[in-house]
Amino acid sequence: MSQNPSIETHEIQIEITETDIDQLNHVNNTVYLRWVQEAAVAHWYSSATKEETEKYIWVVVRHEIDYKYPARLGDKIIVRTRVGTHNKNIFDRHTDIFRSEDMKLLAQAVTKWCPFDSKSMRPLRAGEEVIKRWSVSGPNVF
User: What is d(CA 68, CA 123) in angstroms, rounded to the nearest whole number?
Assistant: First the structure.
């Protein structure tokens, strides 16, 4: 568990499989979104406190993704994520997707997440500690 996820990046590594490839012979756009979500969830579970994981679940309310270059079968991928700012009960998360061989930026995403109560499955106002640990107060520049 991290002491302060608001100042760290978290990354996962991906090996592309044949099921990730579409009819254009590159990784399908929906796969990139899956990677974005997998990286965010991995960051949460690697850095959240036990109390946070018992109380909160996170639900995506919006994805924005810019595709720069295609990923292809055989590429190894690094998905790097970090928290961003928050506005009321919506938390931004930034994700960069690179080809590990040359660190070429393949895609960038901003995802908006809302905390939910894990028992009632209803939106939950984040406490000050979650806001402090899971968002940044200014522009998210790394």
Answer: 34
Residue keyed to tokens 């295609």: 70
Please state the pTM of the whole predicted model: 0.90
In 3D space, the residue among 10, 11, 17, 12 whose CA is nearest the CA of residue 75 turns out to be 17
pLDDT tens, position by position, for the chain (142 residues)? 456 777 889 999 999 999 999 999 999 999 999 999 999 999 999 999 999 999 999 999 999 999 999 999 999 999 999 999 999 999 999 999 999 999 999 999 999 999 999 999 999 999 899 999 999 975 444 4
CB 75 within 8 A of CB 101: yes
The DSSP bridge partners found for residue 79 are 12, 97
Class level of CATH domain 5-134:
alpha beta
